[in-house]
Please model this.
Amino acid sequence: METAQITPFAAIAEFDTPGALVQAAEKVRKAGYSKTDALTPFPVHGIDEALGIPRSHLGYIVLCIGMMGTAAALLLQWWTGAVDYPLVIGGKPLFAFEFSIPVTFELTVLFSSFAAVFGMLALNGLPRFYHPLDNARMTRRVSDDRFVLVIDKSDPKFHPVETIGFLRSLNPISTELVED
Amino acid sequence: MSSYEIDGALWSRVRNAIAFLLLIGVAASVAGAVTEPERFYRSYLVGFLHPTSILLGALFFVMVMHITGSVWSITVRRFHENLIGALPLVAVALVPVVLGIHHLYEWSHAEEVAHDTLLRGKAAWLNPQGFTIRAFIYVAIWSFFALRLVHHSTAQDSTRSIDNTRSLKKYAAPGLFLGFISVSLASFDWVMSLAPHWYSTMFGVYFYAGGGWASFATLVLICLAFRSAGMLRREINVEHYHDLGKWMFALTVFWTYIAFCQYLLIWYANLPEETIWFRNRFVGGWAPMSVALLFGHFFIPFLVLLPRASKRNLKLLRAAALWFLAMHYLDLYWMVMPTFYKDGPSFHWLDLAPLVAVGSLYALGFWMRLKKHAIMAVGDLRLEQALEHHNL
Model:
């Protein structure tokens, strides 16, 4: 056993039901761990609250970029239609809110959905080709029927030996120290 | 089961209060009809449309929830079912509209039609006999589907059979189809034909969108009233209110989308017989109300209900729901009244009397039904799942 020599990335523990995972997560949060994560095959109700994971900021990013889309669409239509190349079409004004709403709406939606997709990827640090958790033997089953709790090495309370010992006290199927 | 029945003393107290309001409303309406018939019938139309469109919105909601197999809504469904149970009463509330047909509709005067080419062309549809017969056919369609939906849902309280859920689904599909067509036609008859030269094929959806919007506000207010009385606090919790808030938000956008599309097409085509309807509302005394609707019916509800936190704040949701009901009234007022008062809005005490009369008539129908069955759809097989509903 050479556990003392490896650089640890995280301590993980696996459970076989979502209920056991949520219960263990409550204890992990109450023990003072904050840099935590859970790997599950499907969304588990209540896991965010149990681990104390804050709500994502994605909504605010989408709102800001969406409003930039609104502004961009209005500017585009006003500048091209009324300033740069004024041309009367069908007796309509060079610029009017009435006809610019559809394009404004579409660009707002387009900007918002791009912000949502790419913002989500950026906040998750994706795409990436390698993740240390892939080294763990037990994470192979999280896409099937296992529920894994992760305590990251960046957590101030993290200690390779004590954290594993603490995870064992939660009655998991097994625990593992993942190499970086 | 017994805990889902309403306390007898509370029920009687509220019933008496509604009956009292109904008496006052009817007495004031009759007094108005005698003294100022012209004004009365105009005010009555708005006062009739407001609660009626809410019942129709509720009918839409119940059928959509059945057809989509929605689970979260099971805990709130019975309230809307009791509301649509009042739909047969629309036949009673319709009587003054039919009686006032000559006060309200230009096309009902034979001498007007005789020298108006457009009205002559539309006379096959727009004539007093057709109007009356159609109105009661619409009510018959709505009542049929409403009562079947209520019947199968309440029967399930004791049968607890999946067959009831299947039947509900079977009624919901043709109900949505026929419901949309009949509400559309009803809005053409009752509201759009006030300006018989004007037409908009989207008008029915516009009318229905507003009704659906207000019906969610009504449902939120009913749920919150029961909550303050200490009932269904666990069954209808913040997760369910969150979803009701999402519907309120979605229909805010939908109403605006329809209202704007209707306006944009007319603005673009720029045909005099179409633009006149908007000119009457955008120029002169009605302009401030049009601006008030743009902000009060769209911008303010949109921005207030946009954050997740506000949809989960019950006090704010209650205030928003009351605001919605007021704005829906303003929207209907704005649809009906400019035809009669071209210079601008002139509010009158008679605007209030029919609203109270028709509103409390339906409320009484709702309240009488509430006593007959459990106040929640206790027989639905997915109830457990609905109670555990959770927004991610």
The interface with chain A takes residues 260, 263-264, 267-268, 270, 306, 308, 388, 390, 392 of chain B (CB under 8 Å). Chain B has one domain: 2-387.
